[in-house]
Amino acid sequence: MHEVMNNLLLGFSVALQPSVLAYAFAGCVIGTLVGMLPGLGPLAGISLLLPATFGLNPIVAIVLLAGVYYGAMYGGSTTSILMRIPGEAASVMTCIDGYAMTQRGRAGPALAIAAIGSFVAGTLSVLALMLLAPTLASFALRFGPPEYTALLLMGFFVLSYMSGGSMVKTLAMAAVGLLLGMIGIDAMSGYTRFTYGVLDLGDGIGIVPVAVGMFGLSEILLTAGQAMPPPPQKPTLRQLIPSRDEMLLSVGPIARGSLVGFLIGIIPGSAHIISSFVSYGIERRMSRHPERFGHGAIEGVAGPESANNAAATGAFVPMLALGIPTGPITAVMLAAIMVHGISPGPMLISEQPELFWGFVASMYVGNVVLLILNLPLVGVFVNLLRIPYAYLYPAILCFCILGVYSVSNSLVDVWIMLGMGAFGYGLRKMGFEPAPIALGIILSPMLELSVRQSLAMSGGSFGIFFDRPLAVTMFVIAGVLVLLALKPLVFKGRDWRSGVGLDEQA
Q1: pTM of this prediction?
Q2: Is residue 506 situated within a structural domain?
Q3: How many domains does the chain have?
């Protein structure tokens, strides 16, 4: 415990530096705005901001992007409650009872409980991250290339199963990402692959143009044709104060949502989305008056909002401890770390203690900043929703082009971004989720290297993957998930995901 406190003091000595504080604040503000804007969300926001982080200190870069991530979790509740429009996918469940409270004249308490629940969940989850990540990293040091291969493959299958929608479609998109990740110079032989004479592709397809195009541009194309929503309400500071009964009813959902969200956040997949669905289902089942849900139950706001913020923090545990992203958001953040020459994985905490503990401490600071931002300044942020799409989206498009070009001064990256934007738009129209493509591009070099290292250790024999107990265990888990995904095709009926609405979240 003494060591943990010393490490935490080290973290605060980094996080309280003026430059880190400034970027943490900027990330929280940007994240709140991104979460409020319909059609963007944290993934698109982080992807658009990624080029701006390459010239920054690695600690500052990860703090900025993390602020955008959990800031968007906060901000998404505002439009959900005031307008019944989820700013990002995790706020879908908040729409149900949050907007019902708005119609009853209780928009202020709903916003306040959402902010308080998010703050409590974020703080508790940071404590859990602080204790769990170093322990997990120590365990992961026992991993060799075969175990790492099995872990990556298991992560793919867990992601595919937990993401909702068709597992076949998700795996197909992951396979496309793996293939795109093979473009460029082979690290072991030095030969170029699939570049077709384009010199700019020697280093492979960058995650920045892919992420910006596939998530930024495709979101713009999807929402550009939609009609402007009606102007939202602007609650005053006095109207934000919840009643005593509302506070008491929120205590249990906030606690349960924090626990459920953090545990789900560690699992690969769309954790922040899944956690909000699961939390809402738990609160409705545990309530003595379930008929209140859907008609303005404060528990239906407190639980899901706490859960999605806790899940956002939980997702950092495998990212920082194992170097394994649990979804496209953490994959893009992992890319931001790798650009600075820092290798993610179990050695990160011991080799880069300032980065890890500074990041942890900055999350404490970020949660306080977000609580301040999301209560007194909610009326200011609401004005952003009054900007016409005709002005907003061209500005975002210009920022995308300039940001991508500035990374390597390459027009090829700009064309890749535009192509990926059109490709992502087409995929979404056909019911495919493009997020696994980004994950595949990030993990492809890691998976290829671990497979080839394993085969080099065994003299070309695949038996090495079945001689290691840990590797075999993870392969078995992956196989079980495949069988579970195929069950609805063999036996009539719906699997557990349909019970929380995940079969519709493609």
Answers
A1: 0.67
A2: no
A3: 1
